[in-house]
Amino acid sequence: MAWTATATLWCRLIRLPSARCPPPSRARCSAQSTDAVDKEYADLNLRPLYTNRGQHLRIRQHVNPLSSSFSEPTEPPEWKEVFEDPLLPLMVDIGCGSGRFLIWLAKNSGQRRNYLGLEIRGKLVERTQFWVNELGLRNIHFMFANATVSFEQIISSYPGPLSLVSILCPDPHFKKRHHKRRVLQSPLVDSITKNLCLGGRVLIQSDVLEVAADMRERFDGHSDILAHVDSVDKGLHCDNEGWLLDNPMGIRTEREIHAELEGATIYRRMYQKIRDASH
Fold this sequence. Notes:
The chain is an alpha/beta fold and 279 residues long. It contains ten helices and seven strands. Helix 6 links the parallel strand 2 (114-119) and strand 3. The model is unreliable at 1-27 (pLDDT under 50). Its EC number is 2.1.1.33.
């Protein structure tokens, strides 16, 4: 009996440090990531707005887009109500996450363009749209939508040209049986390709090579319509494997910041529409 009590106490003592103390390197990395994100997006000055919408929302990191709760297509908005000028070229960010990346572009980009963020996690959409309203921006809008089933219905109704689509570090869904949950499926690729205006571009990006390669393969399959941008824009350079060497957007996404601090490589491809499918 004494041996049992001693053994139990010893096991507790062994487990105690790891239960209470996270690895120092992980804690430092998390702090560095937070600081780096705050610095990158400092000019948005969103922190004072956290009082109203909470800085630390409890957000599910992974959702199953095949769930019945995400199967109904989202109706398009009244474009005249969400954009000051709904005839401007449109950029769509699929899986926009926290929305900071798109808000920064809407506020700081010199291009006359509208910005639409599609996100499957409703709490994030609620907060980002709150920020947009507080900032008084009339060239950006966020929507709760499963892009895989809603993109065509939403974008085909937009009265202006679709000039840019970005899919940046989507959920990798690593397990092979979960690959069907990945956002970029053939119907979405077909819809993006069809709705892009001539000269419109698609930017794909991931810090997971397998995911980036999968997205690349899907868009490479439309080489009769889409050309990789380095063949039409000599200002953008690629490595020997065809990945863009630099971020062409002028700002990094939050996931991009975290990944680079962890030493990960960012794999990017950008395509430009060179002809319509009917030609």
